[in-house]
Amino acid sequence: MARLPARFFHDNSLLIALFGLFAACLAGQAAAHLPTIGLAAYLGTGNFLDGVLSNWQAAVLQLAVLIALGPVLRQKGATHSRSIDDPGEPAAVGFSWARRHSLSLAFAAGFVVTFALHLVFATWKYAEDQALQHLPGMGMAAYAATSGFWFTVFQCWEAEFAVLGCYVVASIYLREEGSPESKPVAASDDQTGGADED
Asked: Which of 27, 52, 144, 191 has the lowest CB atom count within 10 Å?
């Protein structure tokens, strides 16, 4: 098997670290249930898959909203905001609307897919929980209309939007030297827009 060059790790270290953290958390979630049932059995349950997808759909929604609203709405001093005085740039000539908005469209599609999978696995988890009590489950459409499903959905969404709001506010007053997610350390609190904006 060919070894990856050291340059690959240098050029992709952030992505590797993020997916490494994801894998570690996924393993931790699975390991937390080992005393109850075996790992292989747990990975094939609605309980495991619902837990994963309920958080994914909320995280994808969070990024989709930030990507879509950042260029349109303003927050004075925030790094992920359109500049207060920026009238906006004209549409790029030669690029279709879909290409100009491909990032937000990709995350919107990702949200639809992960939300649908969350509903599938949440219905499966509900059926498993009901079966343990010798009670009948219900179909996906019926489960989608229950308050229990929407309670978990809104619980995840509220956490994502609250954290995103805290990030927007914190990025106005706090700095992280060298981070592209932060405005330059010496920039004023009133400066709005991208981290590389002077």
From this structure: 27
